[in-house]
Amino acid sequence: MPSTSPKLWVVATPLGNPGDLSPRAREVLAAVDVVLAEDTRRTGLLFQKCGVTARRFISFHDHNEDGRIPELLTMLQSGTTAALVSDAGMPLFADPGYRLVRACRDAGVHISVVPGPSAPLTALAASGIAPLPFTFLGFPPRKASEQEKFFAPFTTVATTLVFFERKDRLAETLAVAHGVLGHRELCVARELTKTHEEFIYGRLECHTAIPDDLLGEITVVIGPPEEASVSPREQVLAIIEEERADGGRTKDVAKRVQLRVRGWSVKDVYQLMQE
Q1: Which of 49, 83, 117 is the last residue of a domain?
Q2: Tally of domains in the chain
Q3: Residue 125 lies in a domain
Q4: Is residue 223 domain-shared with residue 236, that is, in the same domain?
Q5: 18: containing domain
Q6: Can you tell me whether residue 127 is helix, strand or coil?
Q7: Each residue of 124-173: pLDDT tens digit?
Q8: Could you tell me what reaction this enzyme catalyses (predicted)?
Q9: For residue 196, with 0-12 CB atoms within 10 Å meaning exposed, 13-18 middle and 19 or more buried, which class applies?
Q10: 224 and 124 share a domain?
Q11: For 84-103, what is each residue's pLDDT tens digit?
């Protein structure tokens, strides 16, 4: 049975609007002995905006998480209380903390969560795209070849996809996603809850229409496969013959064909051409 003390709190913080910090979160953050933060300076500025005074900050991020866990467990087991926060939103979602929570669980340290703002859920709620089921993917890998493998398992899985991406890589990532996933609904959300919050609605096959100068934090929502509108095999074969007549490498022809059909990825078209 888990103990009721000592305790690790997992606390959600605002995505951008300080008014989203809940009264319970404010109370916990002010009461714990230590706040574990990815960027102590950034979190300190957030606390100032929210009117919260922390007793002590400890740096806790991807690069020091494993090394810090034994020390933190010792502190917690000796009676210290701690709150884990991320730079913004709900901790552990594409942020450090999973290993610490697991270690606390295994050591019998009681864990409590103060829920609140979450970028994936906020973007999904405003997207107008089917919310159930959905899969949160975190950040895609950087290389196109790795991104293809990243998206490949979801070509036929009936789930909405939600992920984060950096503004300077968005265009390339959407191009790869289109090549793998085919025609789908798309919503690009940026600067959630902030002054310049924006939701861009469209289609994945029209990803080139998304401005390439977007600023701020970006969350992407891609709808599930549209099975009802999949182009029949015979139609795809006819389009393949038309595009082959214009010449080009097999992969380039497959890309041109994929732009003219629905529900087929470039990989699907390529495999059909090989057959």
Answers
A1: 117
A2: 3
A3: yes
A4: no
A5: 7-117
A6: helix
A7: 999 999 999 999 999 999 999 899 999 989 988 899 999 999 999 999 99
A8: cytidine(1402) in 16S rRNA + S-adenosyl-L-methionine = 2'-O-methylcytidine(1402) in 16S rRNA + S-adenosyl-L-homocysteine + H(+)
A9: exposed
A10: yes
A11: 999 999 999 888 899 999 99
